[in-house]
Design brief:
By secondary structure, this protein is mainly alpha-helical. The chain is 56% helix and 3% strand. It has a two-stranded antiparallel ribbon. Bound molecules: protoporphyrin IX containing FE.
Length: 145
């Protein structure tokens, strides 16, 4: 079947909305304001966490910005993260931090609360959480306490 053979709906074929207009997950969940809310809520949790807080720089602002840029890029938003930071190489960038099961679980607890606060439709929430949960497990780099 060639594209020309595809059925059309109201005069448009089913190839999608066309170049430059494809909606990404980033757009679907509300774009920049949604990711700002997510990352701000996450860092509010980190700020009060006795294990995670000491791992982060004194000023959480730049760390917040790095996470925001990364997640926006990952979900199809602006590519500012790579322009400023290069390839994410997240496991490598976390190698200097002791990400043991306790740290991972605390990270997931704050991220879970941040995702809940977005109040997304269940399908979108599921997609977002599934990724974050898998990413958190993949960042584990030690079982030392
Ligand atoms: C599992 C537990 C995790 C812990 C304890 C942890 C901890 C940290 C710490 C201490 C930093 C340095 C903060 C900074 O100055 O930027 C950092 C950076 C970062 N983390 Fe995590 N992290 C975890 C998981 C994750 C996951 C799952 C992701 C992605 C979904 C992620 C994304 C990032 C990003 C994008 C940066 C900034 C990297 C850069 O330097 O460009 N982290 N993390």
């Amino acid at each position: 079947m060639t594209p020309a053979d595809l059925p059309s709906v109201q005069g448009r074929d089913l190839l999608g909305p066309g170049p430059g207009t494809a909606r990404t997950f980033y757009d679907e969940v509300g774009g920049h304001p949604t990711f700002v809310r997510l990352v701000d809520a996450f860092y509010a949790g980190v700020a009060d966490d006795e294990v995670l807080r000491p791992m982060y720089p004194e000023d959480l602002g730049p760390a917040n910005q790095r996470m925001l840029m990364f997640l926006e890029q990952y979900w199809g938003g602006p590519t500012t993260y790579s322009e400023q930071r290069g390839h994410p190489r997240l496991r490598m960038r976390h190698a200097g931090f002791r990400v043991n099961p306790d740290a991972r679980d605390r990270w997931m607890l704050h991220m879970r609360a941040a995702v809940d606060a977005l109040d997304l439709p269940p399908a979108q929430e599921g997609v977002l959480w599934d990724y974050l949960e898998r990413a958190a497990h993949s960042m584990l780099n030690t079982f030392d306490a």
